[in-house]
Fold:
Amino acid sequence: MKTGRYILIAIAIGIVIFFWAHTAKKIDYMKKSLEFESIIKENLLKMGLSERDLIETYNEEKREGRLKWIYFTKRLRVPANFSFEKPRELIEPGINSKGGKIFSSEISRDGKNLVLKIGIKKIITHIVSFERSPAIARIAIIIDDFGFNKMAMDEFMALDFPLSFSVLPYLKYSKMAAELAHRSGKEVMLHLPLQGTKEEFNKNVITVSMDESEIVKRIESGLKSIPYAIGVNNHMGSIVTQETEIMKIILEKIKEKGLFFVDSLTSERSVGYKMARNMGIRTGRRDVFLDVVNYEDTGYIRHQLQELVKVAKKKGEAIGIGHNRIWTARVLKEELPKLKAENIELVFASQIVR
Structure:
């Protein structure tokens, strides 16, 4: 009798296991690895990191029995003051919501590197490394007003440095400037004309008298005319950037397009930077103008560049704005190679906005 009872129990257990194995939801590891990749990319952007910060990236399809997934590795360069608490804090909730986890978060003994191992069950789908730059500070330089002067433009294109070129729309060389900048490895931005205290020659300038539909139309038109633009900064704009309602319209469109915004800060009363931050737009603001005053004086431009370096050393990073003029191009050609000796890293504007 006992033997028969044990057989019946064994059969019952076997039936339960059989039905559990066939009804339990199977994990699609391929799908999960791609979901995790999307979450990681989204949160890297929130940290102010983009493809330009990648040192190395690699992925391959892996198999283990019937399991199949994509294995991703990423190495990213981050500023010396980058918080190693931030990656786990931002990435983990999203990974957990999809059934995954962070297996480990390890900081190297010298405090320069962080490695996250991410996956689901026993499968590691991602290894993401963050490597702090040895530079003590970072600088981004935006060159405004491309589209005017082809001679100065050519000199800037020849500079082998990560510079961000902000192109005015609707000018003779606007489209050419954007295309040449892109081909030469530079970053392209839209230099959006906004009403200022001085009379603006650009016929498509956005003014305080316009309604929302007209403002949106001009932003759309400006972006369409400048290929490869991934960010926006204001041209002039000392009046418009003080107006909360108009800036909200402009910034909503910038956010919708997935662009970053740099406040040129042509007015100390500008609300652009603060509003963009509050709206969750990656943003920054100008610290130093390189050549607004005495723009033909190369000594003055050198002095302003040193001021930019001082600000960067004090704050950890800084944004400078110059203009499409031959004197500025020649000073940068001579002075930018010297930044490395001062442990200053020159980066694109997209790498410094937050």
Observations:
- Residues 2-23 form the longest helix (22 residues).
- The first strand starts at residue 54 and ends at 64.
